[in-house]
């Protein structure tokens, strides 16, 4: 048994966390560029603090990141050395359409990604491309209010038309929006949403979500029309919620928390708004403005597969005494007394991955693709940049084993697995470089100092062996 013969092993990055080159070759400014590191980061990413341009008081890590813009050939060669079958990367919208609302794309931006995809193909690596990994051109934020405006659906459609045609034959696996449910938790980072005093925040978030869901359906439609070989997936920030106790109220709280996350995928995978979501919106006084044809579009153009990120499980309770929160990935949760945690307070739960896979597969009966999973940790390199990261190997081995159990024991259909941050990059949550995920160490710190030199960690050779044996040999 084990994983399918054509299992897509690889790693994942996002343009805004690794590319840099924020002002090179005609690229425009994006929401993800103007998010600083430090105490103002969360107020900015949550849409509470207005920061639409750079200032001198803050450091903006995405401006340069790890400069993959100029290092991509070297980086892809290292991925190939590990044996990657796929590499998940994202397109920076403002590289293709600097303002977002132009009719004609920026040729230099298109050429950059074409070269990158060709470099992948040269090494036998299948690109898995996220169309929007939190990116939104700042011009669209300032002029239209980002995804709160219906006009963004048309701009996104324009982007999709251009990239699907240009990269036909180079890319066949696509994701429409990264962690689409992040719009509820970090709306400026996730969708460029900023809130003025007096705004109906819930109404704006759900209306913006509807626009993204319609845009996702349109993207799926165009992808299939341009190339029937194209496979389009949605993408969810996943992690099952456990009830803190068998108390029925806690069980119900966990169901409700799960549903908040699954709502988006229910629409993208099943093609309609679920009854529970409509009732919840009714209770909150949220009225989704739909245009004629929206429902038909959502129904006719559902995704081919479900992709998701998994870092940890979460816990739900109704007991106010227990609401001591963990730090987990923007999604705070009650602490689980049975689990160890990472240095950033994320709870480590490999079995939770198997549980989450089963929950999602039972719910949708579509192939799954795990496109983010990994351990953020402080790495201490020796003088050659070598890191003995056994803690990362242990974490990943346990998760790959859980994945295999879900496939072997439970019959879950799994297309592939891309670890998060296969090369060290800027953390989306905290903006730090010291929170490292990669098999490849990058010499850069939180303040932007360092040579950007790449070096292999111990986990590099370990992952190479995992891929070589198709997940059979997980030994350190």
TrEMBL record:
InterPro entries: GH, GH_1_N_CS, Glyco_hydro_1, Glyco_hydro_1_AS
Keyword field: Glycosidase, Hydrolase
Active-site residues per Swiss-Prot or TrEMBL entry: 372
PANTHER family per record: 6-PHOSPHO-BETA-GLUCOSIDASE, GLYCOSYL HYDROLASE
Similarity-based family: Belongs to the glycosyl hydrolase 1 family.
Name of the protein: 6-phospho-beta-glucosidase
Origin species: Candidatus Enterococcus ferrettii
């Amino acid at each position: 048994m084990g994983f399918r013969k054509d299992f897509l092993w690889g790693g994942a990055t996002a343009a805004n966390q690794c590319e840099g080159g924020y002002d090179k070759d005609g690229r425009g400014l994006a929401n993800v560029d103007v998010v600083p590191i430090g105490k103002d980061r969360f107020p900015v990413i949550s849409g509470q603090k207005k920061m639409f341009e750079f200032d001198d008081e803050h450091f903006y890590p995405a401006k340069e990141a790890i400069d993959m813009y100029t290092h991509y050939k070297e980086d892809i060669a290292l991925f190939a050395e590990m044996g990657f079958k796929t590499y998940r990367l994202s397109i920076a919208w403002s590289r293709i359409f600097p303002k977002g609302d132009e009719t004609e794309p920026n040729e230099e931006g298109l050429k950059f990604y074409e070269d990158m995809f060709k470099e992948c193909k040269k090494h036998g690596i299948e690109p898995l491309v996220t169309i929007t990994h939190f990116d939104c051109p700042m011009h669209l934020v300032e002029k239209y209010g980002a995804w709160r405006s219906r006009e963004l659906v048309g701009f996104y459609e324009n982007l999709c038309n251009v990239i699907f045609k240009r990269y036909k034959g180079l890319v066949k696996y696509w994701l429409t929006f990264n962690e689409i449910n992040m719009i509820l938790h970090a709306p400026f980072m996730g969708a460029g949403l900023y809130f003025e005093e007096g705004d109906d925040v819930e109404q704006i978030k759900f209306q913006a979500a509807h626009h993204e869901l319609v845009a996702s359906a349109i993207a799926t439609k165009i992808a299939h029309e341009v190339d029937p070989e194209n496979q389009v997936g949605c993408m969810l920030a996943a992690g099952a919620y456990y009830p803190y106790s068998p108390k029925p109220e806690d069980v119900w709280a966990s169901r409700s928390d799960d549903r908040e996350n699954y709502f988006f995928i229910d629409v993208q995978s099943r093609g309609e708004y679920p009854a529970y979501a409509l009732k919840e919106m009714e209770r909150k006084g949220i009225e989704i403005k739909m245009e004629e044809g929206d429902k038909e579009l959502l129904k006719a153009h559902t995704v081919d597969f479900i992709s998701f990120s998994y870092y940890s499980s979460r816990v739900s309770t109704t007991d106010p005494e227990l609401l001591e929160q963990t730090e987990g990935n923007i999604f705070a949760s009650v602490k689980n007394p049975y689990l160890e945690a990472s240095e950033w307070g994320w709870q480590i739960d490999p079995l939770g991955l198997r549980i989450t896979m089963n929950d999602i597969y039972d719910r949708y009966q579509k192939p799954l693709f795990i496109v983010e999973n990994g351990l953020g940790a402080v790495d201490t390199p020796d003088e050659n940049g070598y890191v003995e990261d056994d803690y990362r190997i242990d974490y990943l081995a346990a998760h790959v084993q859980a994945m295999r159990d879900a496939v072997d024991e439970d019959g879950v259909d799994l297309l592939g697995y891309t670890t998060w941050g296969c090369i060290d990059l800027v953390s989306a949550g905290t903006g730090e470089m010291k929170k490292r995920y990669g098999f490849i160490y990058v010499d850069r710190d939180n303040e932007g100092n360092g040579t950007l030199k790449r070096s292999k960690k111990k986990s590099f050779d370990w992952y190479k062996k995992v891929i070589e044996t198709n997940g059979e040999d997980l030994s350190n």
